[in-house]
């Protein structure tokens, strides 16, 4: 078996054997297959596709390419939660403490901001002192002690994904369902949870733009997780506009705290409660009144516990002004009245990235204070001269630079309805429509 | 413009602009576009194709990527001849001296053996002392003096083709008509001739297996040459069985000498006369009795002149036993009688390569003496126990190793007809069938 043979087979639309897939993954990791052969194979996969069996073999081989967590020392059924990435998506910061407050252990490995997508690790680092680089033993011990830990994947996990992802990013082979699905699920499998909840974003600010595409990806992810022996459920949720109102790291932590305190945006609360309830169901836990955990402050206290355990200042949950604040706040005003009919998540994210809230390379620095806070969302009425959003910038010039872009990301029509957030629930049994 | 954008456009089946193609070629040559991006683009081209305009832009950009010969100091209209590569294809060794003997200057750059295909330079090096690495000035001066020179392309010609070819070879993107056509024609354009004659081989021993594929390639090559301002004609000729009887470097030189002396295999003589006549027509030369040039010995004397001018021993044309000879000659006998119905050019070439007559890497050494001489060709009657071929090997063990493979490359049936050699003549006006 040679890489050239396997490139040729995939080029001709044939399905590769499990041995062939494992040969490619091993060769990607040990460097015995050069980048240019992997790139040609990835383009052939992008254009020819992969069967379910190939995708499963790829996912399992990638998961097994590095360290795999063993969470068995943590009592109970562990449930992971993963979002495919979006704009203003701080749901993990709400859902994880809420679920932990309900007694279900949360051992969560998260990622960093890249491109227009935010990352949970960067958001948590907006809390002074918060450490995301826990060792594996420390990570597991913390879940055993306080029921929750959120940390970065260690460098030795899923090395195959790092090789493939870097190449896909440079060769226009990112948007392939089998490649996306194997990348996501290999990391979830290696993270060791018993069950997996996926939040597949659909819309302008997501990896996939349309609900049918997101549904296809969700089906692929659920099938993959199931065939790997992990109960897996996926939601398709709206990412046409940003989730909630805040886009930017410290701004999003503040909004998560507000939501845990029961005063956040309704749609973020609705999504978080739904995802938390699903995680409890996957954990096999009987009905818990999650709303009460928010109202009584249990979830917010659990978040404070998490922050303290990982070296951060827990007072932030009572006094969000301890978070970094940008020196300049500049409103963007509506030039006509009507109803907000669009708030382009991608454009708003790119404006935020231009302010310094995001990055194009994994090791680039990030400005944790800056971002954009939407004052209006789709369906909201607006009067000429009212603020559509507030730009939080390092300098006045930075704010001016993106003001037109932020303004242009909104569209205003005579009438417009609010967008539903929950669109589909996908299980092995099928697809349930939630937006009816 | 970035390489990533252009990969994405080709991935999505769009046609790239001339500027985009030139950007890719420049980036391939100066190393600013990494191999893995070029590989992904090549696979996208292999699966999505290229328009005629893209192929022309690619060919011109590749030709212009390095040194381009200026043959204007050589009087008359210069005609190049190129074969797409085959097994036992020593036609250049016959055609070039024959055309030069007719007074048409031949400034020919040739290649080396690679894979199952032979190379004119290796064959010429079977003549003791023959130098193929002429400097450009020396090359042109020789054509001016004696009307013929055959040399290797200099290292600074068509560097883009070297980059692309090495990647294509490693990424299963060789068999793409636009990529083959641009590779062939960029080298021909850079070689500076006014008109180009192409011999497109079709069959088991060729780059393309079927006549329709070869015809499509021939049309593409003719269109490319014409759009670049060079009159171009292509023949499609048979490569199902080896051309002539000899496969192997010194063995083929001997057969070329025999043919120049009028005692070679009829089909090699027929092909050579036809190609030579076409070259004369392209050169604008009035009817010359080519057959007479063979019979009178003018063509053979011109070959001797060529050999002397390039440092070889010209006595070889009168005494081919001066060529290297393999120590072992082992016949392969027919186990049944009938008519030869198949003599698989690819299998015979691979057997020859196993003996040492070919190579898989451009810099690998080659054994100039070894090879296979067919005693029977398709259509010939054969009696059980008669030799089908004679293996010329370095050792008895080498000969034994390939004996079964050589035997298995022949098929024998009750009846079979000889195969025509000339199949199509392709010009800008259309395709003429020659095998009727």
User: Helical percent range of chain A?
Assistant: 40-55%
What is the molecular shape of chain A?
A: globular
**Biggest interface, residues from each chain:** A-B, 22 and 22 residues
Tell me which CATH architecture of the largest domain in chain A applies here: 3-Layer(aba) Sandwich
Radius of gyration of chain A: 21 Å
Strand order of the largest sheet of chain A: 1-4-5-13-14
Mean pLDDT figure of chain A: 96
Unreliable segments of chain A (pLDDT under 50, ≥5 consecutive)?
A: none
Major β-sheet of chain A, in short? 5 strands, mixed
- Quaternary state reads homodimer
Overall structural class of chain A, as computed from helix and strand content, comes to: alpha+beta
Please state roughly what percent of the residues of chain A sit in beta strands, choosing from under 5%, 5-15%, 15-25%, 25-35%, 35-45% or over 45%. Answer: 15-25%
Note the total helix count of chain A. 16
What would CATH call the class of the largest domain in chain A? Answer: Alpha Beta
Tell me the count of domains of chain A.
3
Terminal CA distance of chain A reads 51 Å
CATH-level-4 superfamily name of the largest domain in chain A: Nucleoside phosphorylase/phosphoribosyltransferase catalytic domain
Count of individual beta strands of chain A: 14
CATH topology of the largest domain in chain A: Pyrimidine Nucleoside Phosphorylase, Chain A, domain 2
Question: Would you mind describing this structure in some detail?
Answer:
2 copies of one chain form a homodimer. Chain A has helices at 3-11, 18-30, 35-48, 52-63, 91-101, 120-125, 136-146, 159-170, 177-190, 211-227, 249-260, 266-283, 290-295, 298-309, 345-355, 396-408, and strands at 79-83, 106-110, 148-152, 195-202, 231-238, 246-247, 328-333, 338-343, 371-374, 381-382, 387-393, 410-413, 422-427, 430-433. By secondary structure, chain A is of the alpha+beta class. Chain A folds into 3 domains: 3-63, Transferase, Pyrimidine Nucleoside Phosphorylase, Chain C (Transferase, Pyrimidine Nucleoside Phosphorylase, Chain A, domain 3), CATH 1.20.970; 79-318 and 421-431, Nucleoside phosphorylase/phosphoribosyltransferase catalytic domain (Pyrimidine Nucleoside Phosphorylase, Chain A, domain 2), CATH 3.40.1030; 325-413, Pyrimidine nucleoside phosphorylase-like, C-terminal domain (Aldehyde Oxidoreductase, domain 3, Alpha-Beta Complex). In chain A, the strands form 4 sheets. A 5-stranded mixed beta sheet of chain A has the order 1-4-5-13-14, with helices on both faces. Chain A has a 4-stranded antiparallel beta sheet with strand order 6-9-11-7, sandwiched between helices. In chain A, helix 5 (91-101) packs parallel to helix 11 and helix 5 (91-101) crosses helix 14 (298-309). The radius of gyration of chain A is 21 Å and the shape is globular. Chain A starts with a helix and ends with a strand. The mean pLDDT of chain A is 96.
């Amino acid at each position: 078996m040679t890489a050239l043979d396997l490139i040729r087979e995939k080029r001709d639309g044939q399905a590769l054997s499990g041995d062939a897939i494992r040969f490619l993954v091993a060769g990607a990791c040990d460097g015995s297959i050069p980048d240019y052969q992997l790139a040609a194979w990835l383009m052939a996969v992008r254009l020819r596709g992969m069967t379910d069996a190939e995708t499963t073999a790829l996912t399992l081989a990638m998961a097994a390419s590095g360290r795999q967590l063993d969470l068995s020392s943590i009592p109970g059924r562990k449930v992971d939660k993963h979002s495919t990435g979006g704009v203003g998506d701080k749901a993990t910061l709400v859902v994880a403490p809420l679920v932990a407050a309900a007694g279900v252990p949360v051992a969560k490995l998260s990622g960093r901001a890249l491109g227009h997508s935010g990352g949970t690790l960067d958001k948590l680092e907006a809390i002074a002192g918060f450490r995301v680089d826990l060792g594996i033993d420390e990570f597991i011990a913390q879940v055993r002690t306080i029921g929750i830990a959120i940390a970065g994947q260690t460098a030795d996990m899923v090395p195959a994904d790092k090789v493939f992802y870097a190449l896909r990013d440079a060769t226009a082979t990112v948007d392939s369902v089998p490649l996306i699905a194997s990348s996501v699920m290999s990391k979830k499998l290696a993270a060791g949870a018993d069950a997996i909840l996926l939040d597949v974003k659909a819309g302008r600010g997501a990896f996939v733009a349309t609900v049918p595409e997101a549904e296809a990806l969700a089906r692929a992810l659920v099938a993959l997780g199931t065939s790997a022996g992990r109960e897996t459920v996926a939601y398709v949720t709206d990412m046409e506009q940003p989730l909630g109102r805040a886009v930017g790291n410290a701004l999003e932590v503040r909004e998560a705290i507000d939501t845990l305190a029961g005063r956040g945006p309704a749609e973020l609360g609705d999504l978080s409660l739904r995802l938390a309830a699903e995680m409890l169901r996957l954990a096999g836990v009987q009905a818990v009144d999650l709303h009460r955990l928010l109202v009584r402050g249990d979830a917010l206290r659990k978040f404070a516990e998490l922050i303290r355990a990982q070296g951060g200042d827990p007072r932030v949950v009572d006094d969000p002004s301890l978070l970094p604040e940008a020196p300049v706040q500049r409103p963007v005003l509506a030039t006509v009245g009507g109803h907000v009919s669009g708030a382009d998540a991608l454009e708003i994210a790119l404006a935020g990235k231009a302010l310094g809230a995001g990055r194009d390379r994994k090791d680039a620095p990030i400005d944790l204070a800056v971002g954009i806070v939407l004052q209006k969302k789709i369906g909201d009425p607006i009067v000429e001269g009212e603020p559509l959003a507030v730009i939080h910038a390092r300098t006045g010039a930075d704010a001016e630079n993106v003001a037109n872009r932020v303004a242009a990301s909104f569209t205003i029509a005579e009438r417009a309805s609010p967008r539903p957030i929950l669109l589909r629930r996908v299980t092995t049994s099928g697809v349930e429509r939630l937006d009816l």
